[in-house]
Design goal:
homodimer, mainly alpha, Arc Repressor Mutant, subunit A, Tetracycline Repressor, domain 2, 11 helices, DNA-binding
Chain lengths: 234, 234
Amino acid sequence: MTAPSRRERLRTTTVAEIKSGARRLLVDGGVEAVSLRAIARDMGMTAPAIYRYFPSLEALVGALAGDLYEESTALLEAARDGAGEDEVAQLLAMARAFRAWSVAHPAEFGLIFGAPTPSATTFFDTCADADHPGARFGAVFVQPLVELWHRSPFPTPPPELLRRHFEGRLEPLRQSHGEIPVEVAWAFLSGWTRLYGLVAMEVFDQVSWAITEPEHLFELELTTFATQLTPHRP
Amino acid sequence: MTAPSRRERLRTTTVAEIKSGARRLLVDGGVEAVSLRAIARDMGMTAPAIYRYFPSLEALVGALAGDLYEESTALLEAARDGAGEDEVAQLLAMARAFRAWSVAHPAEFGLIFGAPTPSATTFFDTCADADHPGARFGAVFVQPLVELWHRSPFPTPPPELLRRHFEGRLEPLRQSHGEIPVEVAWAFLSGWTRLYGLVAMEVFDQVSWAITEPEHLFELELTTFATQLTPHRP
DNA sequence: TCATTTGAGTGAACGCCGTTAACTATCGCA
DNA sequence: TGCGATAGTTAACGGCGTTCACTCAAATGA
């Protein structure tokens, strides 16, 4: 691990500048506005120069998607770490942080959580299954759920029902998180699905025909979700 | 209402041929593969000819999105009409039909239920709020829910909690469906959000790192959803 | 120190794309 | 029969990703 040479440092900053230009275009024009020629123009370069740093536009967008995945994962971790000891409070803080980030960054959300573009596809295919960006993202949710389950088990559908549906199909999840109680796996999949649905519907503008200020629907669902994570009074 | 002239008939079939070419390109190349030149090539025409029928590529893709919305709405109605009298059975049949269609038509799903492209945006903006395609789509779900609610009310969060969160924010929904009990509005929004989340996650390939055969997760969630629509035993 | 190799960047070109403009030929109708 | 509307053409412009041949400066090694 030797110190980076001057050339390597320059290269790193250039890569960063390319990516930040790409993100700027993404933010104010959608993914189809990201073009090598526009990035190069903004940098005072010509388009073919970018091929010294990325093999194609697709690869550049893929790398950007990877960065965004990391950014949102770090965001979740920060929300969790700032929410005290109670796991339910941690999960609620993470959900709120995720929604806030997504609503504030619709283009970025669309790139990593929307329909898989060729760029995203080729990028994610280069990731080993165990450290798929989605796996590290999901892990931040799984950990508090596991701890909550051991401290104060929440109600779930009957475990034999869960086992019947999940039988042998949780291998990918197990590969990145080790053995997990089937109830926790269910809570994660069910909860993440609901969170994703709420946020994606709002970001993709699929509910504005029915409700204004979808944040209140979000908070309502969060309330009922928190209730479901609390043991029912006997 | 006079019979369409020969010219009008030719025009109609040409429009249909353009759209079907566009859909073919959409299906096996994603939305970014839809190009006027490719469509025209497949039809043995030149690209500018298409401007006799659509003012821009954006408008063509928008019209295609409108057709797809109609297609999926009709699909839901067919599923409902083939599911007998019981409203819960109707809702389950609709959910299954929606998932099946979406999984079988990922590109079409992405176009109308994914991140809004400029094309979709400009198209949906041309729709009046009351007959927004989403509203007609949602109506198919709302109707059985209303009937079920009147026949056999399902458990919901406390109505005062619902009212507090929905206060004055359901105007768009009311405009297309008239007065609706707040409990039904909640059931629709909550249920549609969960259904959308499940299907979008599967179609957009956001869960393959955790679970294989997501259809079983879908069926599991459907089971618990049906339970929640049934009055709890006293 | 000087020659050489490496790397970054350029300019021209190819073939796509959407879109516009000018033009032609055909069809339907009075 | 003639005329206007309609459907189609070709040519062109600018933008795009990408490739290739090239230049020039920086790092390297004898």
